[in-house]
Amino acid sequence: MAALAVVGCASTTGVIPIGQNTYMIAREDNGPAASLGALKAAAFKEAGAFCAGQAKTMQVTKESDTPRSLGQFPQTTLQFQCI
C-alpha cells in the first residue's frame, strides 16, 4: 500500500536589486502548515545576511504581507536598503 504525502512548497525570489542600493525579497509557501510569521522571519534573515555580506546593516523601506485565506497562500514582500 502506497502512502501519499502532501508536501508544501516554499518559494523565494532571492535578493533582487530594484534601484540604487534598494533590494527586494518575496516569499510564498503553499504548504499546509505555512506560516506568514515564518516567511517574514526568513525574508528578514536573508536580507540581513545579504547586507552583512557588504559590512552594512539592513534598513526596511517597505513591506507587504498577504495572510493565508481561502484560495490564497501566505506571501510576504520586503524592500530594503543596505546602509
Question: What does this molecule look like?
Answer:
It is a single chain. The protein has 83 residues and is α+β, with helices and mostly antiparallel strands. The chain has one domain. It contains 1 helix and 5 strands, in the order E-E-E-H-E-E. Strands 1, 2, 3, 4 and 5 form a 5-stranded antiparallel beta sheet that branches. It is elongated.
What's the multimeric state? Answer: single chain
Low-confidence stretches: 1-7
How many strands in all? 5
Output the number of helix runs.
1
**Average pLDDT number:** 89
Q: How far is it from the N-terminal to the C-terminal residue, by CA?
A: 56 Å
Shape: elongated
- Strand coverage percent: 35-45%
Radius of gyration: 15 Å
In brief, what are we looking at here?
By secondary structure, the chain is an alpha+beta fold. It has one helix and five strands. The relative contact order is 0.26.
Layout of helices and strands:
Layout: E1 10-12, E2 16-19, E3 22-29, H1 36-52, E4 58-66, E5 75-82
Antiparallel strand pairs: 1-3, 2-3, 3-5, 4-5
List keywords for this structure.
83 residues; alpha+beta; five-stranded antiparallel beta sheet; 39% strand; elongated; disordered N terminus
